[in-house]
TrEMBL record:
Domain of life: Eukaryota
Keyword Transmembrane helix tagged: yes
Protein name as it appears in the record: TRP C-terminal domain-containing protein
Coiled coil: none
Alphabetical keyword list: Membrane, Transmembrane, Transmembrane helix
Segments crossing the lipid bilayer: 12-31, 38-65, 112-132, 153-175, 195-217, 238-261, 267-286, 298-316, 328-349
Organism from which the protein derives: Halteria grandinella
């Protein structure tokens, strides 16, 4: 159990990291778990599995049903307040096969485990979103929160949550209903009565959801953004849009067979094999997924589930041959691990491809920004170069005008100087002659 708990804690840590930094990766992982849920649930067939196949399948089952919060360690403490100690002591799994796959109780609150916590969290977020919608006209903070939460939670998020948690919800509710005696219910404690009523309402709701999804798709309301999650990744021709409805219906039929026919393993194998073969044939004929890879992987999972069921049939016939049972047990675990590794490899390739695509988009975006910047620079340079040239031409013209003006000014100064010299020379000679005449007159006198 310690290794199982460590694995759960590790998976929980990885899922939180992926959800924070790579939201698309956690969606791919949940989709992979949904694809593997049918073959993982075959461990509930009432046939003992020898060797290490049973504990490994139990670990995978606990991860598929999202029991990652280790609720079996602390949730029982809260049930003690509403359930009598004698009732808790009598509470046990339906059989050893359900016990080994994580359904260790008949009470719906115990079997839901982590799903109950996530369900309450989702309901709280829906109520909080509705409250923010009512307060959006009063405060801008409530309006911003409503605009962020409403498109993510109210329809798309709720539909994804229902699809991901459909199997734990219907398994836990049907186990509680089938193991409760209506005659003895009146004498039970309040917790037992509440558990039965809650499981009854949950079971009816899950079945109604399948019908509601069918009506939504039939009336073409999936074209709007609210219900787009129902046909996400599916073709829009023929029966392909109804593939999500068929998947939920297949899980419901599997749950009925495994829970209601626990004492009839032969009938379980027959009905489950018929269901698996029919689903595989339907997968090949409809080709519901848009991606060819997804179609191939879905058909591969159906083939692996059929091989698993055929191996269980061989295991049921080899009840006295211990060596053959050990060999068939190894075949079972090999089929299970091979299916898990192939699906995990597909998810890793998809994550790597998405990361490379986003990196290329960022590189292209940075290159586009550089190109745009260069275009702006060139445009600015193209618009500024003529003005600069005109300014330089104007400066040159001004310099030429200034040179001409300087030359003209110097020329005027020279001419003025010459004119001045010419006008001063006759006056000087005239005065000298007069002075000479004065001298002669004085001398004559």
């Amino acid at each position: 159990m310690s290794s199982e708990n460590n694995a759960k804690i590790t998976i929980l840590t990885i899922s939180i990291i992926l959800q924070l930094f790579f939201g698309f990766a956690i969606n791919l992982i949940w989709a992979m778990m949904n694809d593997l849920s049918f073959i993982i649930s075959l461990g509930l067939v009432s046939i003992p599995i020898p060797g290490v196949a049973s504990p490994i399948q139990s670990l995978l089952s606990s991860l598929i049903y999202m029991d990652l919060l280790l609720t079996d360690k602390w949730l029982a403490n809260y049930l003690e307040y509403s359930v009598m100690p004698s009732e808790l002591e009598k509470d046990e799994a339906m059989n050893i096969y359900f016990d080994s796959q994580g359904f260790q109780s008949k009470l719906v609150l115990q079997n839901l485990g982590s799903t109950l916590v996530f369900l309450l969290m989702h309901i709280f977020l829906l109520l909080y979103t509705g409250l923010m919608g009512q307060l959006s006209s009063v405060t801008d903070i409530a309006k911003k929160q409503y605009l962020i939460l409403h498109p993510r939670l109210f329809w798309g998020g709720t539909i994804r949550f229902i699809i991901q948690q459909f199997q734990p919800l219907i398994f836990a509710s049907l186990i509680n209903i089938s193991s409760t005696s209506l005659k003895d219910l009146r004498t039970k404690s309040l917790g037992i009565k509440f558990s039965f009523l809650f499981s009854l309402g949950l079971f009816i709701s899950t079945l109604l959801i399948v019908f509601v999804f069918y009506r939504i798709i039939k009336h073409g309301r999936t074209q709007s953004g609210r219900f787009r999650s129902l046909i996400e990744g599916l073709n829009q021709t023929g029966y392909a849009p109804y593939w999500t409805v068929w998947t939920l219906l297949k899980w419901s039929l599997m749950c009925f067979v495994l829970v209601l026919l626990t004492d009839y393993p032969a009938q379980q194998l027959q009905l489950l094999l018929l269901l698996s073969v029919f689903s595989g044939a339907l997968q090949m004929s409809v080709q519901p997924q848009i991606s060819k890879v997804e179609n191939m992987m879905s058909f591969f999972n159906e083939v692996m589930a059929s091989c698993y069921l055929y191996t269980l049939i061989g295991l049921a016939h080899a009840s006295d041959d211990f060596a053959l049972r050990e060999l068939l047990g190894l075949v079972l675990i090999s089929l299970l691990l091979f299916a898990l590794l192939v699906n995990l490899l597909k998810v890793l390739i998809q994550i790597g491809t998405e990361l490379v695509r986003k990196a290329n988009e960022r590189c292209c975006q940075s290159r586009d920004n550089v190109t745009v910047y260069r275009k702006h620079v060139r445009k600015y340079a193209a618009t500024t170069e003529p003005s600069i040239q005109r300014m330089e031409e104007n400066i040159e013209a001004l310099e030429q005008i200034e040179n001409v003006f300087d030359k003209q000014l110097r020329r005027n100064r020279i001419l003025r100087a010459r004119l001045t010299n010419e006008t001063e020379m006759p006056s000087a000679s005239f005065s000298r002659s007069m002075m000479a005449q004065d001298i002669l007159i004085s001398e004559l006198a």
